[in-house]
Amino acid sequence: MKNYNFTKTVITLLSLFPLVSQAEVCLNATCRDLIQKREAMFLSHSNQHQKRLNQLSNMKIDEIGDNQVIEVYDILSKSQERAIQASAVKLLSHWQNELAGAPIITPTRATEFKTKQNHRFQLFALDTFTVKDRGTFVSGMVFQGSIKVGDKLILQKADGTDLVTRCLSLETINLPEVQAGAFIVMQLENLTEQDIQQGDALIII
Questions:
Q1: What percent of the chain has pLDDT over 70?
Q2: Which class would CATH give 108-204?
């Protein structure tokens, strides 16, 4: 395979695959385009799986059919590592073009919740950490809507559990409110670091 020189990976997709209702659109369009151009690659913690993913990554777009898509989903669902790695600039550029004018991919249950402005807010957890004497923080990108300090949230977990929390602070240059596209660190109320896993969704209520 071609040697890849990637900048820092900024998007993690593995944990979203079991949750999103339009993941196939994402894989068929954006990811397959990036992979075909050798600007992205699938990743797996298993050497055996990685070998097969490398083979799939080298296939031409018109050779990747439904069976290959299903196979990729199956492999990625068993992996504990990043699913797709690419240049931050190239990946975000392709992503924004692909989703221009289209609904943002959302967890299937997220449609049950609306913000006060009658549009959905959502953030997918990428990392969590605890600060002594302050509490639990989660980092991630705001995919849709906006959030401000004091907003009440539902943490939607992959196992179907919903936990109620509140945004206590936003640590992006100390702004009182952030909107879609911002990468933020948010302090949450009444949750521990162990309550949150990568890919869990935060939905405003």
A1: 40
A2: mainly beta
Distances (CA, A) of 119 to 57, 104, 174, 179, 203: 36, 12, 24, 12, 11
Residue (of 149, 109, 133, 138) closest to 196 by Cα position: 138
Give 137's strand partners: 129, 187
Q: How confident is the model at residue 167 (pLDDT cuts 50, 70, 90)?
A: very high
Q: What share of the chain is helix, strand, coil (3-state, %, to 5)?
A: 30, 25, 40
Instruction: Please tell me the distance from the alpha carbon of residue 158 to that of residue 175, in angstroms, as a whole number.
Output: 30
Q: Where are the domains of the chain?
A: 14-99, 108-204
Mean pLDDT on 137-156: 84
Report pTM.
0.42
Q: For residue 119, give the DSSP letter.
A: S
76 three-class SS: helix
How far apart CA 35 and CA 54 sit, in angstroms, is: 10
Which residues have CB under 8 Å from 186's CB, separation 6+? 123, 137, 138, 139, 140, 147, 167, 169, 170, 171, 202
For residues 188 and 205, give the distance between their C-alpha atoms in angstroms, rounded to a whole number. 14
* End-to-end Cα separation, the chain, in angstroms: 47
92 burial (CB, 10 Å; 0-12 / 13-18 / 19+) is middle
